[in-house]
Amino acid sequence: MFDSTKQMRTRITLLCLATAIMGILADIGIHLPNFPLSWIIENLLVAFDFYSTVRAIKDIPITSLINLMLLIGALIYQAYKGRETRLLGFSFAVILGYRLSLFLGNLPKLFHQFNLSTSIFMLGNVLWVWIAIRMLNYFNQQKTLKTEQSEKYEENYYVAASAGQRLFNFLIDTLVALLLLFALFSYLLKIEWVRQAALSLSDLLGERMGFLFIVALFRFVYYLGFELAFQTSAGKLLTGTSVIKNDSTKLDFKTTFLRTLCRYIPFEPFSFVFSRTGWHDRWSDTSVVKEEKAVGKPALYFLLIPLLLILMAVFQFFTYQISSYRTAKAYTERIEKEQNDLIEELNNLETNDFIKTTSNSDFYSTVYLKPEKIEATQITFTAIKVSPEGAEQKEKIEAFYLKNKDTLPRITLSRKELIEAVKGDKDQLKGIRLPEMGFYKINGVSYHFQPDLNPIIQHPYKSKFVVVNIRNFGIPATILKIENDGGDSNIKWEIDRPQLDNYLSGTLGSILGKSEEPISDFKIRIYVTDSLHVARVYRLSSADEGHRLKRLKP
Q1: Which one, 37, 44, 346, 501, has least CB within 10 Å?
Q2: What does pLDDT average to over the chain?
Q3: 221, 260 Cβ separation under 8 angstroms
C-alpha cells in the first residue's frame, strides 16, 4: 500500500504528468507528421499502452479529456501538498471504468485472435486498472470526513451532502456510466452472439425499452462496483462526498446491493424534492456525507469543469483544423499528381492508346479517342462512343473498333487543347468539346493491343525479400529480364512466373527480389515481349502498389 509521504506524492504527480503530457503529445503528433520526436512518443505509447486512440463515441475523445484532467489534477494535487485529490480521484475513477471496459470488450478477441499486439494492449489495460485501484484506495486512506459539533449533545456528527452536490453526483455519474457503457458496447457489438442477443432483447422489449434496460443494468453494476469497493463513485469523488452506513461503518455487499436496487424504484429521484436524502438512502440506512476540502472556496473548484470542456474544445478545434488542412493538402497533391501523370501519358501517346472521356452531362456516355495520326502539334483521333459493358469492355471496344474503324468519325485536336482539358483554370469546367457530341472530361489513357500491367507488391517491413505479382489487363506477354534502375542496387531478381496472361485467366506473372541486407526501396526495369512480338520496357518502384506500370519509350 502507498505511503503518505512527500516522496510518494511526488511519484504520483510525476506519473500523472508524464501520462498526460505523453498523451497530449501523441494527440498532437497524430496531426503533425513533422512534430519533433512524435514517432518516438507514439511507439512508446503503443508499447506501454499509456494512450489509446480508441474513441468510445465518435465525437467525444475520452482519452483527450482524461489527459487534460490528469494534467490539471496533478498540478492541483501537488500545489495543495496532496490534500486536494478530487479531480485526480475522478480521473482515476474514469480511467478504471474505461480501461476495464476496454479489457472486457476486447476479451473475446484475445481468445479468437491471439497475437502479441493484442496481448500487450490487454496487459496495458490490466496495468492501468491495477494502478487506478491502488490510487483510489490510497486517496480513500488520506481523506477525512467533515464533522460538526451537535448543539444538543457533546459529540460530533458527519455533515450531509447538499442538494446541489447530490444533483451534481447524479448528473456526472449518469454521464460517466453512459460513456463507459458505449466504450464497452462499441467492442461487444462486433461479436455475433452479443449482437444477436441485443437484437433479440430489442425485439422482445422494443428498441427504446431494450436500450433503457441495458443502460439500467450497466448503471446498477457501475454503482454497485464503485460504492462497494471505494464507498464513493466518480461523481462523488468530484464533489468530495462519500457514502457511509448510518452507524459510521463502511458499506458491505448487502447494504450496497440494497442501496443500488432502491435507485430503480419508480419515481425514486423525486424523493429528493422535500429531503436531502432519497429513498435509496433511507431504506438502506446509509448517508452521503461531505469530506474535508483543502480548497478555501469549493465553488471555484467547480469552474474547472467548464474550463476542462473549453480546453478540450480548443484542443479538438486545433487538431481538427490541422487534420482538415492536411486532408485538403493531401487531396490537392493527389489531384496534381494525377493531372501530371495524365499529361505525361498524353505527351507520350502511341497509336494503340485510347483516351477515355465521359460526358459532363451524362456520366454513362463514354467516348474513346483512338490516335490514328500523331504529329508535333496535333493528333487525329477516331471517336468511339460506347456504353459500359462490364469486365470485358476493353476486348469489346477493340473488336468494335477493328470492325467499324473505316466508318467511325474522325476528330483532330491540338496537343494544347488536350493539355488544357486536363489542367484548365480553377474557375472553368475541365474538359474538351467534341464536335457533334458535346463537352467531355478526359479520365485517363487506356492501353489497347498491348500489355497493361498492374503490380501487387508484397514487401514486409525491413525484410530481405520482395515479391511482385503482376496482373495483365491487356494482351498476353512474357517477362524477359529485370534490371535495377535505382533504389537498392544490390537486389538480385528472379523471374518466378514469366507468363503475363490476361487477368481473366486467373494467372499472374511473378518476380522475386532478394538481398543480403533489408530492402528499403527499389526501382527496376521490366523487359517483356507481347503476343504481337513487340518488345516493351516498364518501370516499377516500391511506391507503385496499385498503380499501372509506367511504360517507357523503346
Answers
A1: 37
A2: 79
A3: no
User: DSSP letters along 251-281, please?
Assistant: P-HHHHHHHHHHTTSTTGGGGGSS-SS-HHH
Rounded Cα distance between 38 and 30, Å, is 8
CB 175 within 8 A of CB 57: no
Do 40 and 29 form a contact (C-beta atoms < 8 A)?
no
C-beta neighbour count of 96 within 10 angstroms: 24
Beta strands 465-472; 438-447: pairing state: unpaired
425 Cβ contact list (under 8 Å, min separation 6): none
Examine the pLDDT at 50 and tell me if it is beyond 50.
no
Contact 395, 373 (CB under 8 A): no
- At 275-287, the pLDDT tens digits run 777 788 888 888 8
Per-residue burial over 383-392, b if 16 or more Cβ lie within 10 Å, else e, is bbebeeeeee
Let me know the angle formed at the C-alpha of 72 by 175 and 51, rounded to the nearest 5 degrees: 70
Burial 117-135 (b: 16+ CB within 10 A, else e): eeeebbebbeebbebbeeb
Question: How many Cβ atoms are within 10 Å of 478's Cβ, its own excluded?
Answer: 16
Nearest to 143 by CA among 357, 294, 273: 294
Spatial distance between the Cα atoms of 511 and 525, rounded to a whole number of angstroms: 12
Alpha-carbon 295 to chain mean position: 40
Which residues lie across from 374 on neighbouring strands? Answer: 379
Helix (H, G, I), strand (E, B) or coil at 234: helix
User: Per-residue confidence at 391, pLDDT binned at 50, 70, 90?
Assistant: very low
pLDDT at 551 over 80: yes
Bridge partners of residue 445, in order along the sequence: 355
Quote the DSSP letter at residue 353: E
Helix (H, G, I), strand (E, B) or coil at 198: helix
- Residue range 71-90, pLDDT digits in tens: 888 888 888 888 888 888 88
Q: How far apart are CA 181 and CA 474, in angstroms?
A: 54
Residues 294 and 84 sit within 8 Å (Cβ to Cβ): yes
Instruction: Sort strands 147-149 and 156-158 into parallel, antiparallel or unpaired.
Output: antiparallel
174-227 tens-digit pLDDT: 888 888 887 777 777 666 777 777 777 777 777 777 777 888 888 889 899 998
* CA dihedral sign of residues 27, 28, 33, 38: negative
The string over 158-184, giving b where at least 16 C-beta atoms fall within 10 Å of a residue's C-beta and e elsewhere, is bbbbeeebbebbbebbeebbbbbbbbb
CA distances from 258 to 224, 236, 278, 365, 489 (A): 9, 19, 13, 72, 75
| Residue 2 grid coordinates | 502507498
Choose among 79, 76, 104: nearest CA to 90.
76
The pLDDT tens digits of the residues spanning 512-544 come to 999 988 888 889 999 999 998 999 999 998 877
- Residue 179 sits at φ, ψ, to 5 deg, of -60, -45
